[in-house]
Design a protein that fits this description.
264 residues; 2 domains
Length: 264
Amino acid sequence: MNAWIRGALLIGALALVGTSACGGPDVATQHRERGDTHLANSEWQKAAEEYDQSLAADPKQEKTWEKKAYAHMQAGEMDKADAALLKTLDLKPDAGKKAEVYRNLAGMYMQKGNNEKAEGYFLEAVKIDPKDDTSLGWLGEMYSQRGGARDMKAPAQPDHLNKAIEYYDKMIAAKPELPTAYLNKRIAVNKLLENERQQKASADMEAQNAAGDKDKEAEAKAKSEKHQARMDELKKQFDELTQKLVEVQKNAPPPAPAAAPAKK
């Protein structure tokens, strides 16, 4: 999800040589190369300072903005990392690439455990590209976790689970051939189903305890019937998702063969 993060050190280790009209390295290149050296040596502050000077000379260096962001992130300067990545938006040619910037920002904050900021940037990505299945999937996952779908012992939070399902539905609409959304939606639906079972059992107990009080007993039985109807609806969804998941997995392309080992 964060290719710029994974590649920053590798890029930083390369000698990116530029020339001026005189044939020697220009100012932007000199500072960028010094920044690359500091980055490769995990000298984050020094790297960021050199990238600052390089970008002052030539602000249209997309990769340098990304490396500057990475250096700030590693130094714990999240606001500066944020600002550096946002600078690349104007250098991106289309909506898909701009959405990727916001996804990278979201991933940066997720690595630091700040899911609130991450969510905001995933939402920005979806605004630009409503079919951004990666951002939709992560938004679904965030709400699924908040709803208790990832913890069998956690109480269900229906509002969050329904929001997760909403994002999974959008993901399915964007990429119906991917099994992930069906699988994750199925987990959220199952959590809702289990919650309805518990609610029905509680209503049944109320009806039993209210025996002799017709009004309370009728009220409890009405609750039980309501939960049963919702259970039936969710069970149908669960079964349909199971069937769809099997179909999608069956039609999924086979994995690419492993590369043959290099001959010595």
